[in-house]
Write a sequence for this structure.
């Protein structure tokens, strides 16, 4: 496993109880065994799942992705839509739909059934919260018969994916820390 650390974000194994690992919805669930990751950091305050997801999707780093998705994939999104999916009043955002949700976890699935994004908050105490973000990538459609090969494109972009995931998580934390408490 590559050891790339940015902004004090730690890479760790995907927890056995994470929705990223346990969710079996969607088409061809056997294609989801190959790749999953988990990145975490600690926020020095109590953070709800709603606040984490909203901060993530409205962070300056993710706004670039939102712009590109709108321009290139026709999947425009706005902060109000990010708020609605974060608080559970909407079932989709940009290219993703809610796969499953608990009080501490959210799994978003892309409409093409190629990737999944996962968010979790773990309260450590009243003043600290572990924020976790991860991704899963489906094996290629034309892969080996066991359905476990990742596409060449993803393998080539792996280093960028890891750094980008760390930057996204850090940007969400910064946005959370800059937002006045309700």
């Amino acid at each position: 496993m590559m050891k790339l650390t940015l902004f004090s974000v730690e890479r760790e194994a995907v927890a056995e109880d994470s929705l990223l690992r346990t969710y079996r919805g969607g088409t061809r669930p056997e294609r989801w065994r190959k790749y999953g990751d988990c990145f975490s950091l600690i926020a020095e305050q109590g953070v709800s799942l709603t606040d984490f997801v909203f901060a993530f999707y409205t962070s300056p780093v993710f706004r670039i992705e939102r712009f590109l998705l709108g321009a290139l994939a026709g999947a425009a999104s706005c902060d109000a839509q990010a708020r609605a999916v974060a608080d559970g009043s909407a079932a989709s955002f940009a290219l993703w739909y809610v796969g499953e949700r608990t009080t501490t976890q959210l799994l978003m699935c892309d409409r093409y059934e190629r990737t999944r994004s996962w968010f979790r908050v773990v309260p450590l105490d009243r003043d600290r919260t572990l924020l976790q973000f991860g991704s899963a990538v489906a094996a290629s459609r034309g892969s080996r018969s066991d359905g476990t090969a990742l596409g060449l494109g993803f393998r080539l972009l792996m280093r960028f994916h890891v750094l980008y995931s760390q930057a996204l998580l850090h940007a969400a934390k910064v946005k959370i820390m800059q937002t006045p408490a309700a």
Notes: The chain has one domain: 10-178. The chain has a mean pLDDT of 87.
